Amino acid sequence: MRTEDLPEIHLDTTIPARRGDLFRLAAGQTLRFIDVDGQQCSDLIAFDANDMTRAMSPTMSVAVNDGHLYLGVGDWLVDDDGDVMLTIVADTVQDHDILCGSCSPGLNRTRHHGRGAGKRTCHVNFVEALREYGIPAEDVPYSFNIFMNYPVGPDGEMEYATCKSVPGDYIDLRAERDLIVAISNCPQELTPLNGFNPTPSRVIIYSTEEGTDV
Fold first, then answer.
1. Which of 63, 92, 167, 192 places its Cα 20 to 30 Å from the Cα of 82?
2. Per the confidence metrics, is the pTM higher than 0.85?
3. Neighbouring C-beta atoms of residue 49, cutoff 10 Å
4. Per-block average pLDDT, block size 10, for the chain (214 residues)?
5. What is the largest CA-CA distance in the chain?
6. Is the distance from CB of 5 to CB of 11 less than 8 angstroms?
């Protein structure tokens, strides 16, 4: 469904380059994440709004979706118990990462030999976004990485490749229960992921009839 045709929009906002934000989704609402300028990935984590100890688990999500590393339309993001949190109901790219987690100060320091010192990271964005809920840095869960292009070769080797998304590409995630969702507009500029140039992203929250895919 075209963005201009979405029904009952509750929120339409922009996440600035390198920054993050927090969203509250009621069961049945859908979050549309849009790449504004192209080649921009973002990390997403989710919690049960009524029990913040229940967080989205990328590992369990792979397991319940028949071991698929590349999730697409109809697949689920679930918590550690395998209970569904989000369903992918639309996806114009169909290329996301569920293995590598989020960039962090420690990872930047280790992977980039000090070149990442002082740069913003997705993990820092999550810590800041979740501060009001008292979640410490060590309890920030692994993320589902929207549009992140980490192809896995036959030998298991992974490549830091540039995102395939172009301006206007989007993914729609429908909440299957009340959720708190945090998104970090990935600040990474030391690898090709964002074309070495992080840019803004757009988030729309909308509702359709219960159980209707778009």
1. 92
2. yes
3. 17
4. 83 96 97 96 97 95 86 95 97 91 82 72 95 93 92 81 94 98 92 90 86 48
5. 50
6. no
Residue 177 CA to residue 103 CA, distance in Å, equals: 28
Domain boundaries, the chain: 19-184
Measured distance between the N- and C-terminal CA atoms of the chain, rounded to whole angstroms: 6
Give the chain's length: 214
Q: How far is CA 201 from CA 26, 53, 59, 61, 166, in A?
A: 22, 28, 26, 25, 12
For residue 122, what are its two tokens? 């997705």
What DSSP line would sit under 14-83, residue for residue?
EEPTT-EEEEEE-TTEEEEEEESSSS--EEEEEEETTEEEEEB-HHHHHHHTTT-SS--TT-EEEBTT--
CA-CA distances (angstroms) from residue 116 to 107, 188, 208?
9, 9, 42
